[in-house]
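Notes from the pairing session

We agreed to fold both candidates in a single pass and log them together. This is the raw record for the first candidate, unedited. Please don't reformat it; downstream parsing expects exactly this layout.

Candidate A
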Amino acid sequence: MSEKRSAELLHDPRLNKSTAFTEAERERLGLIGLLPDGVETMELQLLRAHRQLDAKTTDLERYIFLSQLLDHDETLFYALVMSDPARFLPLVYTPTVGEACLRFGHLLRRPRGMYVSIARRGRVRDVLRNWPEKDVRFIVVTDGERFLGLGDLGANGMGIPIGKLALYTACGGVPPEVAMPVMLDCGTNNQENLRDPLYLGLRQPRPAREALDAFVEEFVCAVSEVFPGCCIQFEDWAGVDAVRLLARYRDTTCCFNDDIQGTAAVALAGLLGAVRVTESTLSQQRILFLGAGAAATGIASLLCQAMVSEGTSEADARARIWMFDKSGLLHSQRQDLEDFQRPYAQEHVACTDFVTAIESISPTAIIGVSTVGKAFNRRVIEAMARKNERPIIFPYSNPTSHSECTAEEAYAWSDGRAVFASGSPFGPVRVAGKTFVPGQGNNVYIFPAVGMAVYATKAKRVTDEMFIAAARGVAECVTHADLDVGLLYPPQSEILETSLHAATRVAEVVRARGLGGVPLPENLGAFIRSSAYRPHYSAT
């Protein structure tokens, strides 16, 4: 246990217990007089925290309160969030984190995480060595260029790695001390940020691709040297950069891109639930995407792999995937496509109207990853309802203002027949005499589970097969009662149990493929659970 005493302990969020220090600890550690005389249990501390949160009038104020609690008493923060994840996940992460990041420089109380500026090129290893923890197992790294649906936020995007890693712990059981949020500050092209006197990032335009790639290369090599055994999660990179960097490092470095692979896996999990409702199979679906960027092609790739695992040929699987972007339907004659989009350009005449595309293609499911709010309008939903008895409607863009439609719109315009999931949270909806509980296809169902499996097994690589396993693990936790009310994902109140189950499925792949860095036992479920973090105060 640390030799820290008195005020040092009270200012270390990992060791601080505040009013829960016992009388004996207070005497021994020189805390007498620095705390009120009352010695409290964690339960009493949680009661106070709940009451303080209840007094806040906005979610942003609650976000700030939780951030300050994390900076003050890490154990109590995780105990609070894990006590009611359905309530706290929207406050710690989406949708509230979007508003917080837009105002990040204005809200800053205490810096958290590691800022690695492109101005430090040639010194990245030295910068990383400044991090106080030496056994870092997870890094979530962003350059802030494509933040949610809000665009280039530059250094203001640091709220995302911080929030993601909090969910690794709260939802997946990954110990918080092994996680490091990183902002690769490459400047910003956001003029509003550059004019803001409280903007905290590097005040210069973003570099050319070659300079960016060289900086990322230095960072990845530095991580491998300073933190061997660390897994890197790329987060909120511009679409073309995201695809390119994942392709460059996935086979040589333990890494993944949550916007591509995590989003793909949570979509697959939702579709596995949807086909139970429609009494069909994944390989029988015809899927039309609105949006054809990295998220869409990532989902499409994972869906194709999952279909192939069911016995479908790769050609037949790809023939079931269609994409539509701001220039219209992706078809083989278009000359403006990126290389990663070309596999999904079908033989079809040009089409620039989404409803016309629905009428022509007859999709069983539409998936929105466009970040265009209200793009699934009444014409779209009604067209899907004409084509399908149970149309699958997945508006996955977030935050809420960018969702392609609301749950109420999808259910009302389909006469209650839609099979619905969304990227942003929506409350229960009553249509046609029935109450529906819409599921949120949040990546929080996937990346903490993958992270827990990688942490416990010390996996050397992260593969698409592991994401498919995570998706199937999540889908296995959806009950018939959940499906009866329209819920395609397990309740968020059970997120830790869901994550540990999905992590076990991922660990099975790690063991089968020989990717583990430690010997793996027969009972992987017990092994995963024994590795999971639980928030409690240790004796000091």
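Candidate B (folded immediately after A)
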Amino acid sequence: MTLHRGLNEWLEEVVALCKPDAVRWCDGSEGEFRELCRLMMDTGTLVQLNPTYRPNSYLARSDPADTARVEDRTFICCEKESDAGPTNHWEAPDKMRARLKELFSGCMRGRTLYVIPYSMGPVGSHIAKIGVQLTDSPYVVANMQIMARVGSRVLKYLGEDGPFVRGLHSVGHPLAEPRQPDLSWPCNAQNKYICHFPETREILSFGSGYGGNALLGKKCHALRIASAQARDEGWLAEHMLILKITPPGGKAHYVCAAFPSACGKTNLAMLIPTLPHWKVECLGDDIAWMKFGADGRLYAINPEAGFFGVAPGTSYETNYNAMRTLDANCIFTNCALTPGGDVWWEGMTEQPPLKLVDWLRRPWTPDCGRTAAHPNARFTAPARQCPVIADDWQDPRGVPVSAILFGGRRASVMPLVNESFDWRHGTFLGSIMSSERTAAATGNVGELRFDPFAMLPFCGYHMGDYFAHWLELGRQADPAKLPRIYYVNWFRKNETGKFLWPGYGENSRVLKWIIERCEGRAQAVDTPIGRLPTRDALDVDGVEVDPADLEVLLNCNREAWLKDLPAIRKHYDRFGARLPGELREELEALDRRLRERA
């Protein structure tokens, strides 16, 4: 319970509308977590895994119609359609509220309404923000306990009149009678809405119980709502990992990095460096909130307390530290179940088990012609369990950022690493982040798929204004104290389709050059696209990289870049008059530099 009048009044309104059978205030305790898990085991939502393999861990299997974020049902409900921009689905707030009021009416009959007070970021940090989620899903409560700081201490800090983000969520499946048997995964597949009201800092989510649709602290609060808050208050809410890298005998540096999906984000966050005596530690694998400190530097926190990662493809070979993080106290969703009571997913081991129960509860064998785990199967794991979690990952002051990385999956054009000329040019590089379509994606093979700042699905307002916000922060800051900005590309290929760079732990060599650049020690050469490492500046001792391949990796291919320019112009046209003029100027300056004779 709380003395916060605004929270109590809102709760009363929701109870009157949704009509739950009971209300429970969540305290965030271990006992509460175990109690909720026992409740979900009784309804068939969870299966307890063999404690010999994974103590205090569980497997959930969702409805087949509720397995991922639903971008087409995700809305930004700001007053003016033009403020949502071309990358978001918009609906008028009054119209959406009326529609949702009908859906939420009586939607929690037969269920308990859980009140989840949570802090995104260490409780009391000047960078952190508080939210309260009301939900009828114990699965959401259990996952939010892992993903955020939840419970009584948050309410205490909130006090009697503190600001908070309001989040209302329902699976949209009321029980007609008190003793009616529940579904193992209740949802309302025909009526899914994930709606954000940036002006009033509210989130209304209906119909889905899965992932970012239901765990409202994650993408909904930490990115879509927070990005609007950051614009209004002068900070940054970004889809970025945070890592700490310490050279032998040197001082630690902190790096943030934004990559689209399938570009090695979690692998980089938990990197095991191949460079002797270099140390890489993790502070977060997905989201960074950054504010300027009194010293003029940009400081970052990870607003989350856990990892919500994609399981398929994760293994001891691809990400040893992630696998170690999953040893205990985890919730797995839509993975396969082994006869011994453990989880399995594609890519976890070189050879699959001979017999499994798949994510749809069917018998599975390697020759049955279907995957055992859903491609978007997930793990929810406490960040504190990561073997390389940094000691200061919960420092309420945040950590000073030395460098920001952008990157996509490009088989051509983009070099291994490119340093921007300055903050404005770095903003330009972030705005043109792209990957090339593969045969597995819709569209033409090789066609550029732009994902600016890796924020395409997550920016809570007009992306042209988002670019302008980055530029404005750069203008207000001391240029000498701003993080340096880089564009990296681990995925360059030759004509036969072979990767030119080994990636994984060898990416520490690129990080080494970046850190040495931040310290003013590494050499670079100016090119039309930015500053690239000299051949001698990139440490490749002991790496099997053909000298001719290295030449390609560290080269600016003018002709290839010129061929990309029309696609970049078309991408910019999407933002119309709200694209900052400075970015048009950067594009035209790039064009001129590319056409100049060296």
